[in-house]
Design brief:
Blueprint lengths: L2 H10 L6 H10 L2 H17 L13 H6 L3 H9 L7 E3 L6 H7 L4 E5 L2 H12 L6 E4 L11 E4 L4 E2 L2 E2 L10 H8 L4 E6 L5 H5 L4 E7 L2 E9 L6 E6 L5 E3 L12 E5 L1 H5 L3 H8 L2 E2 L6 E4 L8 E11 L2 H10 L2 E7 L7 H8 L5 E10 L2 E9 L2
Parallel strand pairs: 1-2, 1-4, 2-3, 4-7, 8-10, 16-17
Antiparallel strand pairs: 5-6, 7-9, 8-9, 10-11, 12-14, 12-15, 13-14, 15-18, 17-18
Helix pairs in contact: 1-3, 2-3, 5-6
């Protein structure tokens, strides 16, 4: 950041980017610096959802959208031994690098010159001694033992699920990481099992705030073999295993965390809480007792009936309900459109869980309790 940009940031702070304000700041510094400063304050506001130090950081719009949040970055950092050098092969604007710098020395690579300058600024906020290299981390020999990579997954500004379009190529990264003690590759959990399992020995499906945010592919001699669901905020984990057996619907239905579903860890979840599966759609469990768990969203079952739209809507009306949400995992329904269609506009908020089974489709009318 230049002295002119720093002055522009100070002049623009707390000001709306109106033509008058842009002209005022532009006259004091330069029109270009003024536009840059107001853009930075806009991006800093957006970045508060990811970074506690957003007001001090610098950003680039697309890189911010791709940046690893502070919570996830700290989880990634915790996967490495304290105090060892960790190399961030694809640093961007520094989300992961900043998390790594809180636990030890970091070497951060970034190919884009603009982002490399932003990276230097952001990383200096945590550890001024961290090293930034403007260049491709796949070039040359690797003289380190721990690394993380987050390949860009966009083509023409749009996200893609084609691994061959990722930059850098995750196959090339995985091949190099096999020579390390531990390497992590952050990827989309929407990639197929076949693609992910070909890259590393272990998979961690990591989530927070009720979503499966990412999958970490584990490579290297210290990488644990297996498959897990992990909650980034707490570090709680479930190991994959056999699917639970299917049983009758009890008083409570539980919608399992997407990470548990994606990691094939429902068996461990069912075993831990003495639950059984429901229907053929993965993710729904049931039991006689109300539970509190970060892995489960709990619903109290009012009634279960065949999924006949007219009959379901009439029953919701009789209960004085409105359809607050409709869940249709494993069924080709537009959940939002179906919710509107079945909502009679009552008062009590109800949830309809559509459950496909071997004998047909059922609708569980429920009250959400967690």
């Amino acid at each position: 950041m230049t002295a002119l940009q720093a002055e522009a940031l100070e002049l623009a702070q707390g000001r709306a980017p109106t033509p008058t304000e842009l002209e005022r700041v532009g006259q004091a510094v330069s029109p270009e610096a003024a536009r840059w400063a107001f853009e930075q304050w806009s991006l800093r506001e957006r970045a508060k959802a990811k970074f506690s130090r957003a007001a001090e950081m610098l950003f680039e719009r697309e890189a911010l959208e791709q940046a690893t949040s502070e919570v996830l970055a700290r989880y990634h950092a915790a996967r490495f031994p304290e105090g060892v050098l960790v190399v961030d092969l694809t640093s961007g604007i520094g989300g992961d690098a900043m998390g790594l710098a809180e636990r030890g020395p970091v070497l951060a690579f970034e190919r884009n010159p603009v982002r490399a300058e932003i990276l230097r600024h952001n990383l200096d906020l945590v550890d001024p001694d961290s090293v930034v290299v403007e260049g491709d981390a796949l070039d040359g020999a690797w003289e380190f033992e721990y690394a993380i990579a987050d390949p860009a997954r966009r083509v023409g500004g749009r996200r893609t699920l084609d691994p061959e379009a990722f930059v850098p190529d995750p196959v090339a990264v995985a091949n190099r990481m096999r020579t390390l003690k531990l390497g992590l590759i952050k990827l989309s959990p929407m990639l197929s099992d076949a693609v992910l399992e070909a890259l590393g020995v272990g998979l961690e499906f990591v989530g927070r705030r009720g979503e499966c945010s990412e999958v970490l592919v584990l490579c290297g001699s210290e990488a644990a073999a297996g498959r897990w669901a992990v909650l980034a905020d707490t570090g709680e984990r479930l190991e994959a295993g056999p699917m639970p057996h299917v049983g009758e619907i009890h008083r409570f239905l539980f919608d399992a965390h997407p990470c548990a579903v994606r990691a094939h860890a429902l068996g461990a979840l069912a075993s831990a809480y003495d639950l059984v599966a429901v229907g053929v759609a993965p993710g729904y469990l049931t039991g006689p007792t109300r539970l509190e768990s970060p892995w489960l969203r709990t619903y109290e079952v009012i009634e279960v009936l065949p999924f006949d739209r007219k009959r379901v809507k009439q029953r919701v009306r009789e209960l004085g309900g409105r359809v607050q949400e409709l869940k249709a995992r494993g069924h080709r329904l537009d959940a939002d459109e179906e919710r509107k269609r079945l909502d009679p506009g009552g008062v009590e908020p109800l949830t309809i869980i559509v459950i496909p089974g071997e004998s047909g489709i059922r609708a569980a009318l429920c009250r959400r309790t967690t």
